[in-house]
Design goal:
This protein is elongated. The relative contact order is 0.17. It has 7 helices and 15 strands. β2, α2 and β3 form a beta-alpha-beta unit. The chain has 282 residues and is α/β, with parallel strands linked by helices. 30% of the residues lie in helices and 24% in strands. The strands form 3 sheets. A 6-stranded mixed β-sheet has the order 1-15-2-3-4-5, covered by helices on one side. It has a 6-stranded mixed β-sheet with strand order 6-7-8-9-14-13. A 3-stranded antiparallel β-sheet has the order 10-11-12, with no helix packed on it. It has 2 domains: 34 residues; 242 residues, Metallo-dependent phosphatases (Purple Acid Phosphatase, chain A, domain 2, 4-Layer Sandwich).
Length: 282
Amino acid sequence: MTDTKGSKKSNKIINIIRIIFWSAVGFLILLTGWFFVPVTERFDLIKEGDTNPVRCVLITDLHSCYYGKNQKNLIKKIDKENPDIIFLGGDIFDDKLDDDNAVALLEDLSKKYKCFYVSGNHEYWSERCDEMKDKVRSLGITVLEGDCETITVNGKTIDVCGVDDPTRLYERQFKEQLDNAYAKTSEDHYKILLTHRPERTDLYAKYDYDLILSGHAHAGQIRIPFINIGLYAPNQGLFSKYVSGIYTLENGSRLIVSRGLARESTPAPRFFNHPEIVVIDF
């Protein structure tokens, strides 16, 4: 004789489990989609009494990802900020995705803004880094490889220094690039270092930079809420420290780390970690 009551009870439990399971799946899909949306992060470093601030936008870790036809969605977001300078902090290109999206963005920005670029590890991994740098230069963008360019914006004199990603450099060569770049700065200028890697604070703190701009960490891919720690970032490991936002180094230099713009190029989805452009006023 069939246990009708037991069978109905089992079916009810199974249906509840199914509802819970598919609700969880739907929630995760919605959450993943939400953290796919880019945001703008802002930092105000304007000193009191400074009536001619400079606005820059930091773009890192695009990995040639797609932001609308001809990158129009990302370009609109950048144009809205009306920046004086664009800093391109490495991994603008990717080692697996084609260059089209990266080139579309660079072609547009280079026509409107003063742009500076440094290499990232994925550009080296592509084995086409020199080709990519040549393309960047052909657009009139300054490629920094252990050197420095002095510019004047809104009456403020700025030394913009930059170094290659150390993926293909010996430690000695990376330090030489840092030394060579800093040697070209002046004490009375505002000094910026553009570097892909945020974790080399032991080296950066040896130089008197006002501002250091970086990316690379992708905010640890999964960013632990409230404490701004990344679950795992390259070259930092588990529970990474330098993943997103602003940090003050032991010598007083300010380090800003962008979460970057990588989306479809990453093997794991971003959680609590919107892709971003970074706007800095100083």
